[in-house]
Design brief:
The structure holds 2 protein chains of 2 kinds.
Chain A: E1 11-15, H1 16-33, E2 40-44, H2 48-64, E3 69-72, E4 104-112, H3 116-126, E5 133-141, E6 153-157, E7 165-169, E8 178-182
Parallel strand pairs in A: 2-3, 2-4, 4-5, 5-6
Antiparallel strand pairs in A: 1-8, 7-8
Chain B: H1 18-34, E1 49-54, H2 60-71, E2 75-80, H3 92-101, E3 106-111, H4 116-123, E4 127-133, H5 139-153, E5 160-164, H6 171-182, E6 186-190, E7 206-208, H7 211-214, E8 220-223, H8 239-246, H9 250-253, E9 261-263, H10 276-279, H11 286-306
Parallel strand pairs in B: 1-2, 1-3, 3-4, 5-6, 5-8, 6-7, 8-9
Helix pairs in contact in B: 1-5, 1-11, 2-11, 5-6, 5-11
Classes of the chains: A alpha/beta, B alpha/beta.
Chain lengths: 184, 309
Amino acid sequence: MNEKPEQDIGVLVMDAAAMQRALRRIAHEIVERNPDLGSIILAGIPTRGNDLAQRIASLIAEIEKEPIALGVIDVSMHRDDVGTRAELPVVRASRLPLPLENRTVIIVDDVLYTGRTVRAALDAISSFGRPARIQLAALIDRGHRELPIRPDYIGKNLPTSPNDKVKVGVSGKDQEEGVWLIKG
Amino acid sequence: MNARWARKDLLGLRELSVQEINLILETADAFKEVGTREIKKVPALRGKTLVNFFIEPSTRTRTSFELAAYRLSADVINISATTSSLTKGETLKDTARNLQALHADILVLRHSSPGSALFLAQRLKTSVINAGDGAHEHPTQALLDLYTIRERKGDLANLHVVIIGDILFSRVARSNIFGLTKLGARVTLVGPSTLVPRDFETLGVTVSHRIDDVLPDADVVNLLRIQHERQRKEYFPGISEYTRLFGLTKERARLLKKDCLIMHPGPINRGIEIDSEVADGPQSVILDQVTNGLAVRMAVLYLCGGIAT
């Protein structure tokens, strides 16, 4: 555990400025595809997805001068690997503005990988009601999908190997903002 | 919060750390939210089997565990004393081993012998949840009491919690004493000297036999049911005398602070340990306890039943 040198923070693949541009582009695409902004809910998956959802919401508010509804979807109680992990993830409450009928929920996560988290999020959302549609936004798509799930908004496609790690830093929460690829 | 859950069993609050107790309470927060959803069910324990093994009668605890398991998508089997082979002379261990052979994942046990949950936990791979073992512990009841106080008061540190009634025979009192003192609350036990002996002070609590002296300073009053079924004559002054000396009558309730919470684990004996007006009054959180019990039991089942064994 301790033999790995601390300086291995990986290769910077997206700096703070590029990240801000990517989030701004996602905000524009959301505005373009959803003429009725009052009906959308940006629902972040804790913890970094949550931070990114707030960032995108404030960017949309800046562009369109319209406040955007926010939500949180904690997927840990909807995962399909309970009972196979030695340590359980900490479960937290989900919060979505209700009712969901006739609204568009946009799931926001930092890294899209196997798609299992998104599947759990789809499950969680459907237990709150039946939104008109659900869309998916992710800052990084690193590939290796195990389920038929496809993002609607993507910041950057990043080819990775399954052993790699992708770390997303967000200003205010982490030391530095940006995306790093740590080779496995 | 850095605590991680690594126990397959929940036997009592005595052995839990403050971090573990807080982890259960915070996990219960998340599961309480599930009760507000349109579909009040999550797949967290899908495919797991829970056995409610109640050798002593219970409706509310058993039903609460049952509903908690359904909300987590587990399958539930209920076995009570009269329907089990214990009446045919099978030992507790053999019955439990048979349940394990059926691949039950979680065993919720209510039994009249102190230590029965521990006995099975040490012998079975199944998760064992103590739902009351004699006069020893009833951890989920105490956890839901802690949860309800925390929900109303924010923090338990330095709160003055008064537990009134039959402490000697009460597993609810014992589990509450362990939990409350760990979380920093000040605890006073009140009741007749036969049922509240001074020995309890070794657990870090105060013992009093005069209810009127204690009530004005209480932040929470937890009334225990007078347990007719466990009561022996020599311990007990008689129902009407008990009510006169220790019952929370509406006159006595006037001594309480306006924001003092009134709790009771149920079932309540109206007119004995508590007057109806008080039980149904604005300070009563008795029904909140029932609602919160469901969330707390979901959290406990999720934590104990969810880890890899």
